Amino acid sequence: MRIALFATCLGDTLFPEAVKSTAVLLARLGHDVVFPPQQTCCGQMHVNTGYQREPVPLVRNFAEQFGDPSIEAVVMPSGSCAGSVRHQHELVAARYGDAALRAGVADVKAKTYELSEFLVDVLDATDVGAYFPHRVTYHPTCHSLRMLRVGEKPLRLLRAVEGIDLVELPEADACCGFGGTFAVKNAGTSSAMLRDKMDHIAGTGAEVCTAGDSSCLMHIGGGLSRLKSGTRTLHLAQILAATRTAPHVLTEAAR
């Protein structure tokens, strides 16, 4: 398949290894991965904070960049951005766009996927040849769980990883407290939610906490670092991209 990779803002600016790992993984599985160079923010942060008219240019650009008929799928290492493209873009186009934008949004929406759902639902792959000999726990992010409803797909992929010791995270479906601007506007509540999440992660004894969204991992990882817990955070794509011949070497976690 010819797959277009969407980097996301956080991937582009703070977590490029998650984006690179997505490309490496898809290429290893035999697909042609392309990167539309004029891609920008999907506009999620605007819509989430109540500015629905302002992201029209971003939504239009997304539809133009990824609307190429030769692109069979648009894949991103982010449940929240995939949720924005599949749900919020349609809302923005319906309220503030023209007929061409609505058509473009509908076309791109139909071929947009978060990484785990693309691997399982489209490629019918759970064993992607990954090797990661570490104790890992998985946090299901809110958008992937509640908006995209990826369910067990990330866990099915992780269970097939050679060498992994996958441990269940208690109260896994509870929000980590990030929620974008929620963490800024409701800092006290966000911190309390993060504390609960970190306590549950610590109870697993995991070396690594993984998820499908860099935003949640940024929030959780910051908290774990301040506690010097010894647990690292790592995007799901980075685990799935690791192999015996090209293993992922864990950096020293704060203790």
TrEMBL record:
Q: Which residues form the Cysteine-rich domain?
A: 3-85, 136-220
PANTHER family membership: LACTATE UTILIZATION PROTEIN A, UNCHARACTERIZED PROTEIN YKGE
Protein name per Swiss-Prot or TrEMBL: (Fe-S)-binding protein
Source species of the chain: Streptomyces mooreae
